[in-house]
Amino acid sequence: MIEKLKGNWFFNVKGDVLAGIVVALALIPEAIAFSIIAGVDPMVGLYASFCIAVIIAFVGGRPGMISAATGAMALLMVPLVKEHGLQYLLAATILTGIIQLLFGVFKIAKLMKFIPRPVMIGFVNSLAILIFLAQVPHIWGISVMTYVFVAVTLAIVYLVPLIFRAIPAPLIAILVLTAVAILSGIDLRTVGDLGIIKQELPSFFIPDVPLNFETLQIIFPYSIALAIVGLLESLLTASIVDDMTGTESDKNREARGQGVANMITGFFGGMAGCAMIGQSVINVKSGGRSRLSTLVAGGFLMFLILVLGDWVVQIPMPVLVGIMIMVSIGTFDWSSFAYLRKAPRTDAAVMLVTVIIVVATHDLSKGVIAGVILSAIFFVSKISNIKVLKRQDNDTIVFELEGQLFFASVDGFVDAFDFTATDSHIIIDFSNAHIWDDSAVGAIDKVVIKYRENHNKVTVRGLNASSKKMVDKLAIYNDANAKLSAH
Amino acid sequence: MYNRIVLAVDGSENSLRATKEAVKLVSLTPGCHIEVITVVDFSKSKSEILHTQGKEELELKRRKKLATVEEILKQGMVEYTLKFLHGEPGPTIIDYANKKKVEMVIIGCRGLNTLQEMVLGSVSHKVVKRVNCPVLIVK
């Protein structure tokens, strides 16, 4: 027991505590900014980040990964909050947790690894674009000083790390620029203008929504989208942390853990969240490896809010916006431009379609689903290309087939033959082909019988074992008087 | 002469030259074993994961980058093991060499990422400063 505790929690205490503190500091501005994106009070995001981080530290499947309120989830909630309000969001959060828990229990989460890579690239890129777009209203046409503060924030977050890396640069930007804003009395919008910060711990309550079918109808579509997007980002992040630390993780346990975390968070007034790529990378880079660092991140975040809540509301919005622009630039996959040039045309198209649909609908789940369907179609059309090579020696005609013969490729297969030959020997060679289903066998029947009608001798050869089994069982061309049925 | 040599490579021109020197050095001592290490940079993990469909493909991709290094070692009939470490290249190599009580580190003077080296200093420079054993830097 103690050994196990040590293995999971206390093998790297110093690194974990330090990394946890760094992550907590980086989480605060993001939790606030994502609350603002979702259209709720900053407390909703802060409570979510606290609850999710603390709970996932115990129930997650990937030690060292950071989960909290995220941009991907916040963006999905916008219409729900706008039309129905916070209480429905909390109810949706609880339902999201239940769905994710079920996904984890039934091991559906594992299927996520079949999501094609262009869809995942499109996912992170559109996430970055949406986070950036969400910042524009806080920059554009407010005041000259707003532009100045955004620019200075960006300068600090990108230039300071080149010479000094002990304190996270976003924190330096917040401290310095908040001080400048307060001392100089420059008129800027602050976090306080967009919501209130309560200096108290979250408490348990049941969301104030009618418990009926109508409520379910409202929240279910949001919950399913949140569940999918949350698991998608969490499992992607888990793979990244796996790679960075050179260790393995339990993906199904992570899915169940995300579910439990969201479910409980909904009862404590927090919005649905998931794992965060950026924060998890910061955590590992800062030396965090175990569950302890995730726990410290959540705990220290809450501690900071309890102690410094009065100061947090004074943070100027342009500074927060600047940090969010950095987050979106960091989220974007910049190698995508090279990818668009080098990847197969169909993959590039899937990536672009995913991005376009997300940006048009502001719904990450729709983009992902469209991307998956499109790449499935491309896959089928690619694999349904069957090649037929024709060779003629004297009165023997050999057709060599190459590819997969199944329902999607039978049309191309039949069309590839010309049925003009008479009184010759026709050999159909399947050495480089595989027969998958009834349609395929039916197509072979059709070709063989048609040739026979013109008094040709037909030989089918080169079938591999499983193809042969299928043909022997189903084909009728071996019956001497087989005729094509009139369809 | 030496029994535990670490050769740090990244697939760059310089690391190929370093490999050739390592082969020469080892040929003096029969039975000497080279540990070839390569560091997967933390900041590349995200985009590499994003651009590969699963672990196996990723491992293959990374190994391909070092194909020439492995070829040189095989041609030199050198016994070696290849290890992938994760982290920031400089500190990770230093940490490994110091913890494993290595007798010599061989490294190319300049790696793949010239821009980063201009700003942050070269990996080989850091290694020379902080590793507790002789370091052979190959130009």
TrEMBL record, chain A:
Gene3D superfamilies attached to this UniProt entry: STAS domain (3.30.750.24)
Pfam families cross-referenced by the UniProt entry: STAS (PF01740), Sulfate_transp (PF00916)
Statement: the UniProt record of this protein carries the keyword Transmembrane: yes
Localization in the cell: Membrane
GO MF annotation list: secondary active sulfate transmembrane transporter activity
Coiled-coil regions listed: none
All residue ranges annotated as the STAS domain in the record: 386-487
Membrane topology, record value: Multi-pass membrane protein
Keyword list, A-Z: Membrane, Transmembrane, Transmembrane helix
Domain of life: Bacteria
InterPro entries noted in UniProt: Membrane-Transporter-like, S04_transporter_CS, SLC26A/SulP_dom, STAS_dom, STAS_dom_sf
GO CC terms of this entry: membrane
Membrane-spanning parts: 43-60, 87-106, 118-134, 140-160, 167-186, 219-241, 261-282, 294-313, 320-340, 352-380
Primary location class: membrane
Keyword GTP-binding among UniProt keywords: no
Matching PANTHER family: SULFATE TRANSPORTER YBAR-RELATED
Protein name, UniProt field: SulP family inorganic anion transporter
TrEMBL record, chain B:
Residue ranges of the TM segments: none
Signal peptide range in chain numbering: none
Domain UspA per the UniProt entry, residue ranges: 1-139
InterPro entries reported for this sequence: Rossmann-like_a/b/a_fold, Universal_stress_UspA, UspA
Domain of life: Bacteria
Pfam family, one: Usp
Family label: Belongs to the universal stress protein A family.
Name recorded for this polypeptide: Universal stress protein
Organism the protein comes from: Paenibacillus anaericanus
